[in-house]
Design brief:
Two copies of one chain form a homodimer.
Chain A lengths: L2 H8 L3 H9 L6 E2 L5 E2 L2 H15 L4 H12 L5 H35 L9 H6 L4
Antiparallel strand pairs in A: 1-2
Chain A binds a DNA duplex through helix 2.
GO molecular function, one term (chains A, B): copper ion binding
Pfam families (chains A, B): MerR, MerR-DNA-bind
Subcellular location (chains A, B): Cytoplasm
Chain lengths: 129, 129
DNA sequence: CCTTGACCTTCCCGTGACTGGAACCCCCAT
DNA sequence: ATGGGGGTTCCAGTCACGGGAAGGTCAAGG
């Protein structure tokens, strides 16, 4: 299978697939004309990567997770550790964003949003005394 | 005031302050020795920028907001529009992250986390059916 | 007077995970 | 022969800085 078909099948852009090869996440074969030839195992890995990335895992986490996936003697504790650490990051980010949203929400509510210049949003940013 | 003092006062790293000058957000004066000399107005702008960035506004949004801040004839509607658009982005991101967290949370709960290899997390990533 | 150390300057590279584009090759159909 | 739709590589850019090198400046201490 060529890269275009793989892109369609996995939903990943061809550029991304080439990038994943660049950084060593997949190793497709090559045809005589230089085209990448993808086997089922490559497809499978790309789907794995797509799902892991959709859950927000970093590329390095993906590398770790794929290694664990392929290691039949893994301990599920190792997987869980990676996942929990990632979830911690996500929760931290959610907390940050919630704080921003709350502040913004108040400011937006307080702003008339008409053609006059008075604006509590700008007052706040300017360091309202 | 030199950049170090400004960094201490605003809480922004000196690197960041130089960067903000680079991209034209502030225009401090220069002493004869080439050192930046910051006026109160520069301090004020930097504090403004720091707060806007802390609320997650992009640099371009900050540029817009500062222009509105300095425009006495602004309409608060314009400010509100920028803020609402930004809040929309934040809410979208929160929604994404919440979805990730929920999925991860289920997977993590389902994972034994011991020294055996069976792992629902990897099963899911691998396309479990 | 000289040195030390804390500042300051510019400049360039790296970050993460791609995306866009240029320039070029390959294959099939008309 | 030509056109179009694949594929290939490589380079540059994204966003908002951070790290670090190489070198100029300044106040204090010996």
């Amino acid at each position: 299978m060529n890269i275009g078909d793989v892109a369609t099948r996995t939903g990943l852009p061809a550029k991304t697939i080439r990038y994943y090869e660049d950084i060593g996440l997949i190793k497709p074969l090559r045809d005589d004309n230089g085209y990448r030839r993808f086997r089922d195992q490559d497809l499978h890995k790309l789907n794995f990567l797509g799902r892991a990335r959709a859950l927000g895992f970093t590329i390095e986490d993906c590398r770790t997770l794929m290694a664990l996936y392929e290691d039949e003697t893994r301990a599920s504790a190792d997987v869980k550790k990676v996942a929990r650490s990632h979830m911690g990051q996500i929760e931290a980010k959610i907390a940050d964003l919630n704080a921003m949203r709350d502040t913004l929400s108040h400011l937006i509510d307080a702003c008339a949003g008409d053609d006059r210049p008075d604006c509590p949003i700008l007052q706040d940013l300017g360091g309202k005394p």
